């Protein structure tokens, strides 16, 4: 409850998931939500309370794709706000509260008109339908005030700035909070009827239903792995023991990722961190033990690999380098694509799935370019590709066991026996691959 000049404001009732998604402590709140799940109402409440805590003359913005959409929020706020708490200007679409703060409702279709003002808190509504220029303009208005912002909307594909921002928030970027609210969450809170969800699922295309009601992006056909194929490979973290490791080393603001596969291709260990090289080298040696690892040796990775090989020899660790180039990355990613589409690998939900889902490829004059969208990471994808490459080398190529016979695992009928022989050899440190 907040009081302004003897007038009382009482917060409308919000259901727990709605409240937790919007009233977070982080400056940036990213909410991907179903249609009619309460995201707009919840953010109207949030922006109003920001303004009620403000001082006379301070500006608070609601930004929608076009002015007519901003009017929807304007009308809703007028409906629930006690009339004595504000004065309105219909031509400007503003509400001036009794404490002198001003809530503006603006369209994002003319981004240049959004520059210049100092804004103390903002909401970008239907963000996936707003151009990135508008986001940049709104962000500039929050610079002097260090104001918070809530970015909300339905999911609409993967090729937009809001999707990229949401993935950064979901991966744990500093001062960012991510939430997803589905139609089923809203139905649990009795905001919408389950029969309405079922009716929408019957009558809408599957990809449209998933975006509008489940907050799941459709496949933009630029993902090399296929979103459905990725989802079919999701499984809990597998049991060990690890038989190979893939390690992608951090570049600039990236993460170092170390990922292990067991004999069945399941991810059985996953570590992701940032830190000094000396600490990274020690951690890798501790994680991998005497299990072989394929390590990114591109650029700064080369001296790191040399240090790993030198120090690893003392405890029987084995590290092989892999240099990423446009050609080698295409080859290793094609190998990962096959593994995912044929379900030869499984991985837990979270960072790995997020990076795989946002990964892209494009055809260039020199070949196919594989990369993460601007501002996102692909460290987990690269580590998984390295691990799968090492796993394939062990299981699909001729594996030579010192003191034993060749186990030709290209022959499917001999695969199980070869895997057993490989594991025996690995545990006794008697193997290498060609």
Gyration radius, rounded? 26 Å
Instruction: Report the CATH architecture of the largest domain.
Output: 3-Layer(aba) Sandwich
Q: What level of helicity do the residues show?
A: 25-40%
Our estimate of the beta-strand percent is 15-25%
Strand ordering within the main sheet: 5-6-7-4-8-9-3-10
Structural overview:
- This protein has an 8-stranded mixed sheet with strand order 5-6-7-4-8-9-3-10, with helices on both faces. It has a 5-stranded mixed sheet with strand order 13-12-11-14-15. Strands 19-18-20 form a 3-stranded antiparallel sheet.
- β11 (244-248) and β12 form a beta hairpin.
- The protein is built from 15 helices and 20 strands.
- It has helices spanning 16-22, 39-52, 67-80, 132-141, 161-170, 183-188, 194-203, 206-214, 227-232, 277-288, 301-312, 326-341, 351-358, 379-396, 415-427, and strands spanning 2-4, 7-9, 28-33, 59-64, 86-89, 94-97, 102-107, 119-124, 149-153, 176-181, 244-248, 256-261, 267-273, 293-296, 319-322, 360-364, 367-371, 398-401, 407-408, 431-433.
- The protein is elongated, with a radius of gyration of 26 Å.
- The relative contact order is 0.10.
- It folds into 2 domains: 2-214, P-loop containing nucleotide triphosphate hydrolases (Rossmann fold), CATH 3.40.50.300; 232-396, Nucleotidyltransferase, domain 5.
- By secondary structure, the protein is α/β, with parallel strands linked by helices.
List keywords for this structure.
Rossmann fold, elongated, 434 residues, alpha/beta, 20 strands, five-stranded mixed beta sheet, disordered C terminus, 2 domains, Nucleotidyltransferase, domain 5
């Amino acid at each position: 409850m907040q009081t302004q000049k003897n007038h009382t404001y009482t917060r409308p009732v919000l259901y727990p998931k709605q409240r937790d998604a919007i009233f977070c402590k982080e400056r940036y709140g990213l909410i991907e939500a179903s249609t009619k799940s309460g995201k707009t109402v919840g953010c109207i409440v949030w922006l109003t309370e920001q303004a009620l805590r403000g001082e006379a003359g301070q500006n608070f913005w609601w930004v929608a794709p076009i002015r007519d959409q901003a009017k929807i929020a304007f009308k809703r706020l007028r409906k629930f706000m006690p009339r004595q708490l504000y004065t309105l200007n219909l031509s400007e679409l503003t509400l001036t509260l009794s404490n002198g703060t001003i809530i503006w409702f603006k369209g994002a279709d003319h981004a240049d008109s959004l520059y210049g003002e100092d804004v103390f808190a903002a909401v970008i509504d239907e963000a996936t339908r707003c151009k990135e220029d508008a986001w940049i303009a709104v962000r500039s208005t929050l610079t002097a005030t260090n104001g918070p912002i809530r970015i909300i909307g339905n999911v609409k594909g993967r090729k937009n700035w809001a999707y990229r921002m949401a993935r950064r928030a979901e991966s744990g970027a500093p001062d960012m909070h991510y939430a997803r609210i589905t139609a089923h969450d809203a139905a649990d809170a009795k905001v919408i009827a389950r029969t309405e969800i079922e009716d929408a699922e019957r009558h809408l295309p599957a990809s449209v239903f998933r975006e509008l009601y489940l907050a799941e992006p459709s496949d933009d056909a630029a993902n090399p792995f296929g979103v459905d194929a990725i989802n079919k490979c999701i499984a809990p973290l597998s049991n060990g023991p690890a038989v190979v490791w893939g390690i992608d080393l951090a570049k600039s603001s990236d993460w170092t990722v170390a990922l292990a596969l067991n004999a069945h291709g399941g991810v059985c260990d996953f570590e992701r961190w940032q830190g000094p090289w000396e600490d990274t080298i020690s951690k890798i040696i501790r994680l991998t033990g005497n299990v072989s690892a394929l390590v990114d040796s591109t650029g700064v990775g080369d001296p790191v690999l040399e240090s790993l090989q030198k120090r690893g020899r003392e405890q029987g660790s084995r590290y092989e380098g892999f240099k990423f180039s446009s050609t080698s990355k295409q080859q290793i990613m094609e190998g990962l694509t096959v593994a995912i589409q044929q379900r030869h690998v499984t991985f837990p939900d979270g960072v790995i799935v997020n990076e795989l889902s946002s990964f892209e490829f494009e055809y260039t004059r020199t070949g196919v370019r594989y990369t993460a969208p601007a501002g996102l990471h692909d460290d987990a994808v690269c580590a998984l590709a390295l691990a799968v490459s090492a796993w394939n080398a062990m299981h699909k190529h001729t594996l030579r066991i010192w003191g034993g016979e060749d186990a030709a695992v290209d022959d499917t009928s001999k695969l199980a026996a070869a895997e057993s022989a490989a594991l025996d050899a690995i545990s006794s440190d008697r193997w290498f691959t060609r």
